Amino acid sequence: QVQLVESGGGLVQPGGSLRLSCAASGNIFRFNTVGWYRQAPGKERELVASITSVGTTNYADSVKGRFTISRDNVKNTVYLQMNSLKPEDTAVYLCKMFSLPYWGKGTLVTVSS
Question: What does residue 62 show for φ and ψ, rounded to 5 degrees?
Fold first, then answer.
């Protein structure tokens, strides 16, 4: 079973930045498309960014130009650099490989003054 561990969340003021990390166990991570999702209280989980095994990226319109997804296949880690954060970015952020059903526990991002 693959394990995913998200980290890097916290409390940040509007306009601030955070960098999230998603570390995976096993050797299949590097061959998979990985997505960062988020779930705010009372809302459905949404995909905010994804990156293929060769580095092709896609973003939700709500984060385009502010968030950047990247990966280090040697470290089996995917990152989400979040800039110009807004209160509406507050959510639990989770990562997942598209081809497998495993989720991590997520990391909480709170954007508030």
Answer: -70, -20
Per-residue pLDDT of the chain (113 residues; tens, 9 = 90+): 788 999 999 999 999 999 999 999 877 888 999 999 999 999 999 999 999 999 999 999 999 999 999 999 999 999 999 999 999 999 999 999 999 999 999 999 999 99
Q: Exposure string (b/e) for 37-57, b if CB count within 10 Å is 16 or more?
A: bbeeeeeeeeebbbbeeeeee
Distances (CA, A) of 104 to 12, 69, 77, 86, 107: 22, 17, 13, 24, 9
Structure tokens at 59: 């973003």
35 bridge partner residues: 50, 96
* Cα separation, 6 vs 90, whole angstroms: 16
- The neighbour count for residue 31, using CB atoms within 10 Å, is 11
